[in-house]
Design goal:
By secondary structure, the protein is an all-alpha fold. It has 4 domains: about 5-105, Arc Repressor Mutant, subunit A; about 145-265, no CATH class; about 280-350; about 365-485, no CATH class. Helices cover about 65% and strands about 0% of the residues. β1 (about 80-85) and β2 (about 85-90) form a beta hairpin. α6 packs parallel to α8.
Length: about 500
């Protein structure tokens, strides 16, 4: 029958007792206060049909948060819920509540819960009503028994200290709900597991040399390691030994454990240690190869290269190939090719490769004898070996080749190309023994001779490395005849 003019609301006043400011405002959340004040305003000026959805639009607060605020004021005895559909509320003044003349029902369960929380913290921390209200929501909204929530609070105090954040503890309450914790026994088991996780994280942090409380992210990672990946706590500590570079961190350790479980399925401390020992031994083998080759390579790149080499030949052969390539100034790429070459020739064991290289060493010694005869300085190259193979193919013995080398001693320019031209001339003339050489008249000294006018052959990489096994065997026999066998060095 009576109503306020809509514009009159702008000039009116909403009464708020000082008792509310003194007794209720300090402990309440900001949004809860906004809901209370707006509700008083709505009692005086809004339509009886004013809904929570409309209030949500006016205050920019979600409906569930408004409902939580109204439940809070119910527990404080300032509001009574009259009906659920549609929701209707009756407000009482703080003075009525203080004098006990309001009809609002005080939530005795909440009162007992609050007293238990105060007792749990004692003098260690002053708990404010808003924190107790938040914890009570875990009872009301999540369905956790009050005893379970109190156990949760005791757990947080033990793990994080008495001044932990109730908001952070809410994550744990939600986890308990999701885990189906319904009884104190369930809560004890659940929290015991969480304590194990917390202690495990503290030990990992200590192993890393870090003295601080665990972060939520670190707790979640450790939970994954022991629950999802099923690592033993000691296995996780043992895996810390693999953090050998940079700043140790949980993300670093997470990658190590992920790699362990993906490669070998190791879970126990014994399995993890065995796997790490095997991997370290393999790294040591890889470094042995690259050190002998004379290249710097480490980390994942080194292991990738080493594994690729192992796909061709065994480790012992890799060492011999690395020594050979370094001695001949060959690269890692050449080493791949050389291993494939040896494999195609059937040299796939340390013994067969050593025998092959020993024969090559004998051939090199024959070439050094030729070098001494012609006065050439330097080490035999693969190109020199190819020339020797050609001379041998023409039927010339070591004695004949050295005789030709004597003629190249005084040559100006390249002595080996000169020697090659001399032997080519002999071969064209049909000279096959030393008597024919002695009967052949040659000028004693000349600056330019026909033997120096030659065209060098350009050998391919494959030709330079593909030395005839027959030639190597012949060199070995010659060395035996000339008493050189005992002077051969090892590879």
């Amino acid at each position: 029958m009576f109503e306020y003019d809509r514009e009159a609301m702008q000039y009116g006043v909403t009464a708020l007792e000082n008792r509310f400011l003194l007794d209720y405002l300090p402990a309440a959340k900001g949004d809860y206060i906004k809901v209370y004040l707006w509700s008083l305003f709505a009692c005086a000026y809004k339509s009886p049909d004013y809904s929570l959805d409309e209030m949500s639009q006016d205050l920019f607060i979600p409906v569930p948060e408004i409902e939580a605020a109204l439940r809070y004021w119910e527990r404080r005895g300032l509001v009574t819920r009259l009906s659920d559909n549609p929701p209707q509320y009756r407000f009482y003044s703080p003075s009525q509540r203080a004098q006990g003349t309001s009809e609002a029902n005080v939530d005795t369960e909440y009162v007992h819960f609050a007293e238990a929380v105060y007792a749990a913290f004692g003098d260690r921390r002053k708990v404010v009503p808003s924190e107790i209200s938040l914890a009570w929501e875990w009872v009301q909204d999540l369905g956790l028994p009050p005893e379970t929530v109190l156990m949760l609070l005791h757990h947080c105090m033990a793990e994080r200290g008495s001044h932990f954040s109730f908001k952070a503890a809410e994550k744990l309450a939600v986890s308990m709900k999701e885990a189906g914790v319904g009884t104190p026994e369930d809560a004890e088991s659940f929290l015991q597991h969480k304590q194990t996780v917390h202690e495990g994280v503290r030990k990992v942090l200590s192993r890393m040399g870090k003295r601080r409380l665990p972060s939520d992210d670190e707790l979640e990672l450790y939970e994954k390691w022991i629950a999802d990946w099923e690592f033993e706590p000691q296995a996780i500590l043992d895996a810390c030994k693999n953090m050998t570079s940079g700043d140790p961190s949980f993300k670093y350790l997470d990658k190590i454990l992920e790699s362990l479980q993906n490669r070998s399925g190791a879970r126990t401390s014994e399995q993890v240690n065995k796997q790490m020992e095997q991997e370290q031994a393999r790294k040591d083998l890889a470094q042995e190869v690259f050190t002998r080759l004379g290249v710097r390579l480490s980390g994942p790149a080194a292991m990738m290269e080493y594994n690729a080499l192992l796909d061709i030949q065994p480790h012992a052969v890799l060492l011999l190939a690395a020594e050979y390539c370094r001695r001949n100034s060959r690269s890692l790429e050449d080493m791949h090719w050389l291993l494939e070459r040896w494999k195609s020739k059937g040299y796939t064991t340390e013994e067969s490769v050593r025998e092959y290289l020993e024969k090559r060493r004998g051939l090199e010694m024959l070439l050094r004898e030729v070098f001494d005869a012609c006065g050439h300085r330097g080490n035999p190259t693969i190109a020199d070996t190819m020339l020797y193979q050609k001379w041998h193919g023409w039927g010339y013995s070591q004695e004949m080749i050295c005789a030709a080398a004597e003629q190249a001693r005084n040559a100006e320019g390249g002595k080996i190309p000169y020697l090659d031209k001399v032997l080519e001339t002999w071969h064209a003339a049909g000279i096959t023994d030393l008597s024919q050489v002695q009967a052949r008249k040659t000028p004693e000294k000349r600056k330019t001779v026909s033997e120096q006018q030659y065209t060098q052959r350009q050998y391919t990489e494959e030709e330079l490395l593909a030395v005839s096994d027959d030639l190597i065997e012949e060199a070995r026999k010659y060395r035996g005849k000339s008493g050189m066998e005992s002077g051969a060095g090892s590879v």
